[in-house]
Predict the 3D structure of the following.
Amino acid sequence: MNLFPSALDELVEKFASLPGIGFKSAQRLAFYILSLPEEEARSFAGAIITARENVRPCRVCQNLTDAEECAICRSTTRDEGVICVVASPKDVAAIERGHEYNGKYHVLHGVISPMNHIGPDDIKVKELVDRVAGGTVREVIMAMNPDTEGETTAKYISRLLKPFGVLVTRLAYGIPVGASLEFADDATLMRALEGRQEI
Amino acid sequence: MNLFPSALDELVEKFASLPGIGFKSAQRLAFYILSLPEEEARSFAGAIITARENVRPCRVCQNLTDAEECAICRSTTRDEGVICVVASPKDVAAIERGHEYNGKYHVLHGVISPMNHIGPDDIKVKELVDRVAGGTVREVIMAMNPDTEGETTAKYISRLLKPFGVLVTRLAYGIPVGASLEFADDATLMRALEGRQEI
């Protein structure tokens, strides 16, 4: 006997297909949707469709936008000579929170990961090379996560960009501000030592 | 400067309004929706609307159904004389998984919880009393969670049902099958001792 109506089963299935949502959570979310006023449930569904229809990658930097070009690329007060390369739009948000960086961005939408069958052609590397080939770029900052995949991607891209004569840098590795030496992992400590600076 | 397009912000907000989903998870889910083929995003939105429109409480037992009466209430092979009272449709599913119980159900959609301002009128108690008043019911089994709210609800309902002369029972408390005595909590052990049975 089918215990739940099929429309409920289907909604549970949809939620369970989202990353990080297991069957129990999916069930909880589906029940919650059923408990919403009909108007709110419709507005939830509408938000999904609107976002999917209107949000697209920026023509220049590939960050998410609802226009042809994103606000940062359209900005005339930001330095066009510097491009900060990140793996995801969330990383742009993280760097912008610091209110320090005044260059442009390039969002790869992923990192090279042979384990997950993601090669250079599966992320927005070609678009970056085209921008650099344009000629106005002086420096490209690699701001991928400091893990194997991030470093592989940074190295691969820096090799591609070398022929254009631009400066390729990466974020400094070291002790996080406010952290305690005692709890820093060995790799971070070694990197901090290697990158020591005169004071 | 608005970093993300507003349609994306709105979708993140919607996901963050779901129970148990924080801002970071909501962001992850919204990005995932954007990465879906448009057809799949539409089908997700459609599942929300279909479920919200078609799923309603069964006229008799209040369990979720897409018909007037749920499949269990329509069934003629199940004992109409026994009603198992549960807090949520998920509990019906849990009991049905055992393939032992052959009576009917009543879903309260909540438990009495003064802390959360949920009184007897906010859950489906009146509907249960009406069913019992109908006269065909011999036994009502309380199957709420064994916590303070569940027990309060069970006691409240049993007092309401007494005048109808039906047998009111509750699930046995005790050591879970397969569990180890050593790790059972005190309250469970005491309940198991009190409810000891001759072998």
The two ends of chain B are 74 Å apart (CA to CA).
